[in-house]
Amino acid sequence: MGFPVLMGILTSAIILFMCWIIRDNIKIKDAREKYVFITGCDSGFGNLLAQRLHQKGFTVIAACLTEKGSQELQACTSPALKTVILNLTNTKSIDNAVEFVAEETGSKGLYGLVNNAGRATPIGPTDWLDMEDFHRVLDVNLIGLIEVTLKFLPLLKKAKGRVVNVASVMGRLAFGGGGYSLSKWGVESFSDSLRRDMQHFGVKVSIIEPGFFKTGVTNLEIIEKDLHRLWNRLSPEVKSSYGEKYFNNYLKVQRLSMNTFCDADLSKVTNCMEHALTAQYPRTRYGAGWDAKFFWLPLSYAPAAVADIMLKLLLPQPLGIKKSLAKNQIDV
Ligand SMILES: NC(=O)c1ccc[n+]([C@@H]2O[C@H](COP(=O)([O-])OP(=O)(O)OC[C@H]3O[C@@H](n4cnc5c(N)ncnc54)[C@H](OP(=O)(O)O)[C@@H]3O)[C@@H](O)[C@H]2O)c1
Ligand SMILES: *[C@@H]1O[C@H](CO)[C@@H](O)[C@H](O)[C@H]1NC(C)=O
């Protein structure tokens, strides 16, 4: 290829990239007039986003799971920020929140719906779990999110609003058994179909894919307490297939990797949520955090064999397998 051709391609690429940057930075007008409803504002990303949007002048309606969370948020904001109690596994609670928002927003409709609430536990090796364990996560992270979204769609269409759904890198690369990865894959696919269906009405849908951050969802105390519950109720056969030492090794390796990966700067995630709400042209997907951008999301595009090897390195191997194989050989 000749030098002029190469220069031509390079220049076009740079110009296209600059146009994209300019387009990406165009903001909507009159953010101040707009209503935003956020779920899961007791702690973590939801709590920080509620405070930030409130400071920016949005009219924030923050949904909290507990009365305590709601009072704490109200104590550090002004009465202009409204809170409402919302438990996503309870249809009546969802209906109450929708009614409250409908009254608050009146003829304006709802500009922003941020589906942020979620839980991670029970999470652990798949054969340690039962159906109830799967339901406990799926009912909140996926079924609850769908119910909230369906019930807010009329208000969102009225305002030509936006839906911002919090998925995860674990919705692109499945590991850690239980409902969590499943729920986040579900959020990805629900959001994709919602975006395609709602484009005709001017409602835009964005997906946030955070890596690992220090919040309630990654709290090791909570995760380990639940893992003890799972391990202690295992049948002797399943336990011995893993080996007695497995549990402690699992905890050790999990602590090491969580402490390595978890980022304390939650604004990396809330900045993406803010962009999705305030940019004239919100992006479809936001990878949030260095680990997401440079490790988890690229790994999700790698061949499964490569991802399997990488993920195998992150957790210990069951030792009981070797023992039971050796025993079988002697039996024969
Ligand atoms: N932290 C991470 O590394 C990470 C990575 C990727 C994605 N995410 C996602 O980010 C979102 C926010 O989580 P976070 O990391 O900020 O953790 P968090 O601090 O635990 O926030 C989750 C929020 O959801 C609320 N919640 C839990 N169960 C609920 C229910 N049944 N109904 C209504 N609300 C409920 C929690 O209330 P309580 O505080 O009262 O329990 C809390 O306010 C979640 O969807 C999570 O899956 C987190
Ligand atoms: C949420 O609702 C479920 C089902 O009604 C209930 O079991 C759970 O205790 C509730 N959680 C809170 C914090 O109120």
From TrEMBL:
Keywords: Membrane, Oxidoreductase, Transmembrane, Transmembrane helix. Belongs to the short-chain dehydrogenases/reductases (SDR) family. One of its GO terms (biological process) is steroid metabolic process. The chain crosses the membrane at residues 6-22. This is Retinol dehydrogenase 7. It comes from Hymenochirus boettgeri. GO terms for molecular function: oxidoreductase activity. It holds the Pfam family adh_short.
